[in-house]
Amino acid sequence: MSEFILGPLWTFSVLVFCVGVIGRIAIILSHGLSKDYASARGSGFTGAAGTIIRRSIPRKEILRSNRLHIIASYSFHIGLLALLFFAAPHVDFIERHLLGFGWQAMPHWAFILAAELSFAGLILLWLRRVMHPVTRLLTRLDDHLAAGLTFFAMLTGCLALFESYLGLKVLHVFGVELLMLYFPFSNLMHAFTFVLSRGSAGAVAGRHGVKT
User: Fold this and answer.
1) Which of 92, 129, 157, 196 is deepest in the core (most CB within 10 A)?
2) Angle at alpha carbon of residue 141, lines to 140 and 145, rounded to 5°
3) Into how many domains does the chain fold?
4) Is residue 35 part of a domain?
5) What is the pLDDT of residues 145-162, one digit of tens each?
6) Cα separation of 152 and 147, whole Å?
7) Is residue 120 scored above 80 in pLDDT?
8) What CA–CA distance (Å, rounded) separates 4 from 18?
């Protein structure tokens, strides 16, 4: 079973992930922006870049009313990003199997901190989904599956640090494979598409001389 998980299933998962993500982005880009007949009053590129940056920073009025949700969201995403690219096993994997070079991994204490922030953020975000009356109505099975698969991949990743147990490493790889297979067909695609959605809205507004 371990040979299958580390071999054919890994290759298949990577292929599905890459083709699925690229395909969905290509479909979005193929639609393009609608023809704008109004005279340009500003730069679409500047508007797009500004909107992407500004909408990544919560406004004061939103922060006051949704403080817990915003803190949990930033904790989860920043912690997960740090683990993905700076955890020592991941840096080693990137160097050996992807790029041929690596970079300085985070120290162990930083790994523990990033893991705790990421786990806490994910759990709080899921609890808010099921407990808040509005988000509970808006939540679909896709949201629960995405949270569950992400949690499983993260948990098995921490367990895989016990390097003497090969089975834990294989379990982590299996969790990552499940996540990659599901990723292109779920709302997890927002990891890529948020740039397109914010950028397109900002480009239109920027061309009209409006700041969003």
Assistant:
1) 157
2) 125
3) 2
4) no
5) 999 999 999 999 988 887
6) 9
7) yes
8) 20
